[in-house]
């Protein structure tokens, strides 16, 4: 059995799991160090942090709420898709829940692959899929004392069935 297969079955309930939600600070360097083996020539990582401004407003902190059991499953699905699509060696991803302060790591992703293109593509795929599919909600708290739930990214809709010219669509 290869390391990748063992990685995919890593239980998310285990605090040492490489894929899942986390209510504690994320050690991004540890995720990057945990992926890859001697067949992988590249390890690429992405770290998303809480920033001090968003859309012209001064942010004090933010709060993530997630449907954690579903979120863990979605993260595993996204990771498996990226591994299959780009032939990545391994992928680790953690996303925070709870209250985060400015500079805290909100999400960390690391991917290994034999070549850099696959590692870069895998990381990009994972973060973009998270933005669309992860059942997580973000509320920003601002310096002026107000707060706001942010709009998510709407998942793409399946294309409407094409109706041939001269025919009516079924109601």
Please give a structural write-up.
The chain is α+β, with helices and mostly antiparallel strands and 171 residues long. 29% of the residues lie in helices and 32% in strands. The strands form two sheets. Strands 3, 4, 6, 8 and 9 form a five-stranded antiparallel β-sheet that branches. A hairpin with a 4-residue loop joins strand 8 and strand 9. Helix 3 packs antiparallel against helix 4. The termini are far apart.
**What's the overall geometry?**
globular
Oligomer category: single chain
**SS content category:** alpha+beta
Q: What pattern of helices and strands is seen along the backbone?
A: HEHEEEHEEEHEE
Number of helices: 4
What share of residues are in beta strands?
25-35%
Number-wise, the strands total 9
Largest sheet: 5 strands, antiparallel
Helix content: 25-40%
Distance from N terminus to C terminus (CA atoms, Å) equals 51 Å
Radius of gyration: 19 Å
Mean residue pLDDT? 86
Low-confidence region ranges: 1-16
């Amino acid at each position: 059995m290869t390391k990748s297969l063992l990685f995919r079955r890593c239980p998310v309930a285990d605090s040492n799991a490489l894929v899942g939600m986390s209510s504690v600070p994320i050690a991004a360097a540890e995720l990057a160090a945990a992926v890859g083996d001697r067949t992988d020539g590249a390890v690429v990582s992405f770290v998303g942090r809480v920033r001090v401004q968003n859309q012209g407003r001064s942010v004090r902190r933010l709060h993530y709420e997630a449907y954690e059991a579903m979120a863990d499953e979605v993260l595993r699905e996204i990771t498996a898709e990226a591994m299959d699509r780009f032939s990545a060696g391994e992928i680790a991803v953690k996303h925070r829940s709870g209250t985060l302060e400015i500079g805290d790591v909100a999400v960390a992703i690391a991917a290994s692959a034999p070549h850099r293109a696959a590692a870069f593509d895998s990381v990009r795929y994972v973060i973009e899929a998270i933005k669309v599919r992860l059942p997580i909600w973000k509320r920003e708290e601002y310096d002026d004392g107000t707060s706001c739930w942010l709009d998510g990214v709407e998942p793409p809709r399946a294309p409407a069935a094409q109706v041939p010219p001269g025919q009516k669509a079924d109601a």
